Structure formats: structure tokens, C-alpha cells
Amino acid sequence: MKQVILNVPESQFAFFMKLVRALDFVEIEESAKANDGLSSEQKETWENIKAGFQEMEMVDKGLITSRPIQFLLNEVEN
User: Fold this and answer.
1) Which of 29, 61, 33 is nearest to 47 (CA)?
2) Residue ranges making up the domain that contains 53
3) 56 within some domain
4) How many CA atoms lie within 13 A of 44 on its CB side?
5) How many domains does the chain have?
6) Residue 50 lies in a domain
7) Which one, of 12, 17, 15, lies nearest residue 30 by Cα?
């Protein structure tokens, strides 16, 4: 099997991956995880950030509700 390395603009990446995944003869190897070189503290922060984005997506889909930012600020003050 041959390998090809491509650089695809971020704005076209989702379309490109959809196109490539439609080809039954292409095997996709995911690139190394972004957090492989991080310290344990950095990994924890990265996981918290990812969880926040997942929650944001769930709010956008109406699966969960969000709270106004003032509630968070009040918790931080106390």
C-alpha cells in the first residue's frame, strides 16, 4: 500500500474527509493525538476544554440547557 500526505485548508477539511471516506479502497490512519506531548496538567486542561465544546454542541442541539454567565460569575465571587 502507498501513502500520501496532503495539506488541506481547514475550511475544506470536513468536505475533503467526507469525500475520502466515501472511497472504499482508502484506509485512513488518524494522525497522532494532539495531547501526546503534553504534561498531565496540560492534558487535564485539554480534556476540560474538549468537554466544554461537547457541552456547547449539546446546548446548540437542544439536548441540555445553559445558564447565564452571571450565575458563573456569582459562583466565582463566592
Assistant:
1) 33
2) 10-27+36-77
3) yes
4) 3
5) 1
6) yes
7) 17
User: Would residue 2 count as lying in a domain?
Assistant: no
Q: How far apart are CA 20 and CA 62, in angstroms?
A: 31
The rounded Cα 47 to chain-centroid distance in angstroms is 10
Alpha-carbon distance of 77 to 38, in angstroms, equals 31
Q: Residue 38 corresponds to which cell in the numbers above?
A: 503534553
Q: Which residues contact 46 (CB under 8 A, 6 or more apart)?
A: 34, 35, 38
Confidence class for position 3, pLDDT limits 50, 70, 90: confident
Span 23-51, pLDDT tens digits: 999 888 765 566 667 788 988 998 899 99
Q: Are 73 and 67 in contact (CB under 8 A)?
A: no
45: in domain = yes
